[in-house]
């Protein structure tokens, strides 16, 4: 369980990036965080693994105040894949990069090999173990950063815009990873601007505006017509399926599947 | 007019050719979308079309790049920069590192062209206004969110008033509003006669913006045609490119045995 209580983060004594956020996230929940650029999404999630410390308020991980834990300790609980993979990639080969985290966490031999192999398999990088990370294109460097986090097998996985730069297959791959993590009881918190990815892959959507949470609910609830003005206030637009379903009087249909099912049910 | 003719390219230190016999023409005022799966060569084609490969990063280019009738191979770096600008996927690669504020960062380009101060200021203010960056002008360019950094990078390009613009996923990190503003800014550039090549996975954005779309797969251009014709091509999904949502939903309805005209009744 993640509990965020009245969290405030102020940069340079001036910019209130997070301005009073309280949230509870259950174990195994798949949560998407959306909102306009600069609304505080990245700042918020960096408190989960201690990369940022609260200006006010606190973050509890399974009841323990994160402020009492060092970043290295938190890393065993919360894995975070950055928006910009180049901020985290440093090793000479793909395999060494993915091994670094779990090795530091104490995994050795068969257990280490197994964690690394599973992460490479999930991200489709199993054929690139000896490749230099910077010989990979941007989209695969993003997947490498994700693999490095998966290999840590942390109970909580935080992804900052994981689908950026991915083609359609890459997005489906990330969706599958999110779903498998949830099925395995691991918590996934992901920032995204891709409303279709959010509606398809997550059970809960948190909408941020100017450092605060303005909506929090299932995709069907958050993308329902009555919330469109709130979404527009933070420059978001519901997926086309939701807009089409509402225009046809079919209720809230945030995914292609739900729209087609509603249409088929009407026949 | 920007013309790439029979272009094949390999990176320095690599034996493998990653682009093969590319023929690409960008007419004045034309916006061309570039789509394709990951690692198909989109970013490399952007570098070659912008003249950075091989001029700045080395490697071997066969074929020619011609900018308004002048072969790019004969141009010096600053002459190239006056004719064609390129925006990268990752805005952090693009930041000058010279500026203390966002305003100065956007002004670096025009200043480097040797423009008079009033002209530099006018261009910088114009670019700021175009992307509504007024609230950020005093901020440190190194302390921006991912999306804000991307908008600043694009404003820096706008301030150059380029004849040709090459953009590699310009809106990857942008929220829908930022994406809309960038789309409007690019349309305005095209209306002034600038030609643009935009590599993007967001086919919904290209759908509303481009006259033409080219598809790259395995380093070869496999399709070049009017936007709707390319996006309606059933082969497109086979190369890993998803059509815009309007086409996707219509197909999903058809696959479920529904008359797709029910969707056309929706005014979204």
Please outline what is shown here:
The complex is a heterodimer of chains A (267) and B (268). Chain A is built from 11 helices and 10 strands. By secondary structure, chain A is an alpha/beta fold.
Fold topology:
The complex is a heterodimer of chains A (267) and B (268).
Chain A: E1 2-11, E2 15-25, E3 30-35, H1 41-45, E4 56-61, E5 64-65, H2 71-74, E6 78-81, H3 94-104, H4 109-123, H5 138-150, E7 156-160, H6 168-183, E8 187-191, H7 195-201, E9 204-209, E10 212-217, H8 219-222, H9 228-233, H10 240-247, H11 256-266
Parallel strand pairs in A: 3-8, 3-9, 6-7, 7-8
Antiparallel strand pairs in A: 1-2, 1-4, 4-5, 9-10
Chain B: E1 2-10, E2 19-26, E3 31-35, H1 42-49, H2 52-55, E4 60-67, E5 70-71, H3 77-83, E6 84-87, H4 91-94, H5 102-112, H6 117-130, H7 146-158, E7 164-168, H8 176-191, E8 195-199, H9 203-209, E9 212-217, E10 220-226, H10 227-232, H11 245-255, H12 261-264
Parallel strand pairs in B: 3-8, 3-9, 6-7, 7-8
Antiparallel strand pairs in B: 1-2, 1-4, 4-5, 9-10
Structural class of chain A: alpha/beta
- Structural class label of chain B: alpha/beta
Show the largest interface: A-B, 43 and 44 residues
Instruction: Supply the CATH superfamily name of chain A.
Output: P-loop containing nucleotide triphosphate hydrolases
Specify the oligomeric state.
heterodimer
Number of domains of chain A: 1
Number of helices of chain B: 12
Determine the fraction of residues in helical runs of chain A and give it as a percent range: 25-40%
Rounded radius of gyration of chain B (Å): 19 Å
Strand arrangement, major sheet of chain A: 6-7-8-3-9-10
**Name given to the CATH architecture of chain B:** 3-Layer(aba) Sandwich
**Biggest β-sheet of chain A: count, sense, barrel?**
6 strands, mixed
Please indicate the count of domains of chain B. 1
Q: Provide the low-confidence segments of chain B as ranges.
A: none
Order of helices and strands of chain B: EEEHHEEHEHHHHEHEHEEHHH
CA-CA gap between termini of chain B: 37 Å
From the spread of the alpha carbons, the general shape of chain B counts as globular
* Shape call of chain A: globular
Low-confidence blocks of residues of chain A: none
Question: Which percent band covers the strand fraction of chain B?
Answer: 15-25%
Structure annotation, total helices of chain A: 11
């Amino acid at each position: 369980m993640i509990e965020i209580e009245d969290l405030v983060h102020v940069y340079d004594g001036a910019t209130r990036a997070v301005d009073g956020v309280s949230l509870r996230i259950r174990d195994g929940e798949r949560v998407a965080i959306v909102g306009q650029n600069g609304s505080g999404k990245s700042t918020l999630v960096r408190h989960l693994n201690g990369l940022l410390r609260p200006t006010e308020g606190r973050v509890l991980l399974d009841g323990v105040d994160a402020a009492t834990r060092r970043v290295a300790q938190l890393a065993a609980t919360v894995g975070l894949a950055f928006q910009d993979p180049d901020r985290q990639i440093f090793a000479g080969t793909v395999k060494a990069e993915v091994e670094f985290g779990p090795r530091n966490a104490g995994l050795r031999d068969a257990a280490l090999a197994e964690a690394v192999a599973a992460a490479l398999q999930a991200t489709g990088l199993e054929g690139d173990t000896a490749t230099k990370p910077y010989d990979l294109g941007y989209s695969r460097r993003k997947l490498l950063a994700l693999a490095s986090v998966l290999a840590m097998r942390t109970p909580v996985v935080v992804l900052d815009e994981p689908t950026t730069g991915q083609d359609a297959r890459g997005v489906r791959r990330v969706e599958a990873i999110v779903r498998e993590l949830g099925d395995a009881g691991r918590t996934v918190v992901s920032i995204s601007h891709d409303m279709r990815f959010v509606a398809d892959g997550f059970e809960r959507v948190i909408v941020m505006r100017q450092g605060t949470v303005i909506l929090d609910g299932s995709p069907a609830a958050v993308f329902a017509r009555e919330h469109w003005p709130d979404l527009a206030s933070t420059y978001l637009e519901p997926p086309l399926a939701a807009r089409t379903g509402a225009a046809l009087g079919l209720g809230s249909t945030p995914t292609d599947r739900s729209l087609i099912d509603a249409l088929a049910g009407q026949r | 007019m920007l013309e790439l003719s029979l272009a094949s390219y390999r990176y320095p230190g690599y034996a493998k050719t990653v682009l093969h016999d590319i023929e690409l023409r960008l007419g004045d005022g034309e916006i061309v979308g570039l789509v394709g799966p990951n690692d198909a060569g989109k970013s490399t084609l952007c570098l070659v079309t912008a003249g950075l490969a091989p001029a700045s990063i080395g490697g071997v280019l066969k074929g020619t790049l011609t900018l308004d009738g002048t072969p790019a191979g004969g141009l010096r770096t600053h002459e190239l920069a006056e004719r064609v600008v390129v925006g990268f996927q990752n805005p952090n690669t693009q930041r000058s590192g010279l500026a203390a504020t966002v305003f100065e960062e956007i002004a670096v380009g025009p200043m480097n062209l040797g423009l008079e101060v009033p002209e530099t200021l006018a261009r910088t203010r114009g670019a700021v206004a175009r992307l509504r960056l007024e609230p950020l002008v005093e901020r440190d360019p190194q302390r921006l969110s991912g999306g804000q950094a991307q908008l600043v990078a694009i404003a820096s390009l706008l301030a150059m008033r380029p004849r040709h613009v090459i953009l590699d996923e310009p809106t990857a990190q942008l929220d829908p509003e930022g994406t809309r503003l960038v789309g409007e800014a690019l349309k305005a550039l095209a209306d002034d006669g600038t030609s643009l090549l935009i590599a993007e996975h967001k086919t919904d954005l290209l759908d509303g913006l481009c006259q033409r779309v080219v598809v790259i797969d395995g380093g070869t251009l496999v399709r070049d045609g009017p936007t709707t014709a390319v996006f309606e091509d059933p082969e497109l999904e086979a190369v890993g490119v998803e059509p815009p949502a309007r086409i996707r939903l219509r197909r999903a309805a058809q696959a479920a045995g529904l008359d797709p005209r029910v969707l056309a009744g929706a005014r979204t």
